[in-house]
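## retry 2 of 3
previous attempt timed out at serialization; input unchanged, resubmitting
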Amino acid sequence: MNTRYFTVAGSNRRYDRNWMLAVLLISLMLSLLQVSSVNNLLASIQGSMHSSETDIQFVLSGYALAVGITLVPTGRLGDMFGRPGMWVTGLTLFTLASLGCGLADNALHLNLLRVLQGIGAGFYSPQVTGLIQQYFQGKARARAFGYMGLVVAVSVALGPLISGTLVQIFGSQTGWRYSFFINVPIGVVGIIAATQFLPFANAHKGAEAQDHLESDASRSTASGSDSLSSEVRETSSPTAPRRSQLDLDPLGMVLLVAAVLCIMLPFMLHTITWRFALLPCAVVLLVTWVWWEKRYAQLGNLPMVDMSMFRLRSFTYCTAIGGLQFLGSSTIFVVLALFIQQGLHGTALDVGLIGLPYAVLSGTAAMWSGKHSIEYGKQIQVLGLSLILTSVVMTGFISWGLADRGWSHWWLILGLLPLGLGAGSMGAANQTTAMMDVPAANGGTAGGLQQTTQRIATAIGNALITGVLYSTYRGGTTSADWYLGLAAGLAVIAVCITCALVLAIVFEHRSRKYASVSV
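## retry succeeded, writing output
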């Protein structure tokens, strides 16, 4: 049987899975470039717009937060009205917002457009995971997630390299704008390609087509994974509303957004003395949100997050592990870019070149992980996190040599090599293992929930760790002053990665113990 091509209900067209994946990965790369490239532009943007440290922090956190709070509701809209249509809507919004970011004349306008850009990315990101979960099965799905890991690795490296080159060519005052402009032609190409390679279906047939394909997928992915427990199926299937019902759970969305803001703002509003009083409010809001989601489901509605999903051990553990990893590791290049450019007076291009070997190793590790994640995903997560933690320690030691011993900043390449291997292997292993036991019918919700956790963790991590850096170096101008800030930031990152590693070890141990008892 030729598994490369497929058809959908209501259409006679044959679609190519390979071309569909290529189109989806275009949008994934764009959304990731907007993190990695902007990391390298903070100094240029701050100097060009004479903006405050809080403004600069929100350039990163505002985008990540906007992505995080839109993933689950837009994933549900994709289930209702068709994922390809939502993908195109999101990419169109993202492309227009990118144009606006490049034309922004002050920090406020830039941050507002970054939020709009994040909303666009939040529209299409869950459709990428949902379409892969829907149209790829077994090892083909693991390979697709491996390619996603490759794109992540390339994006992390290409972003700083592209933005650094543009700043080098056009100058720090205007060069950063071209890093946003470059999204426009790529986005237009992606939108045009979508009309040829994505399986569109009209709204009233979308659910029928999806259910048909998910039924096929569930039969073909049974090998090598545990199915969803009958308890979860009984909770999620009979009482769930029809897919065509428009139910966005607005109160659940408001509670979650408010909780995340209460966590972020204390690390961003440095001039407000009572800001840490918001943290207890965040705890209350989170508890209320969980209660509301359960109550909303009991009333026969479709909650923002179906809490019964957390009865799946693999999904729960991997979502938590990935969230802790993103909480720390997503900010490594942010603090390094600030240290190199403002502490060591290096260039944005230097930052991009330092990250290039990291990308080569990360891409290689992602492809290797995609081939082995079904059999050894749990063990690969332990290995990957161990390598990331090793990299953080090595980078801290090398940075001390840069600040105190006058070493060349090119030595940082050595510290980032284990990070490339670890981060590359973690992507496919975490994604594949998390989705292993999730039925295809629940793939969109599960993928959106996992990405939401990662994006919110990224937003909180950016606010937390850059806040620690800025508060520690206290406006100093020497490399030694900046190293104190960097060391404090790396220490927080190390704590986050250590927590993720401990959780991964517990998950791997409990899985082996459970497997031996089952046998």
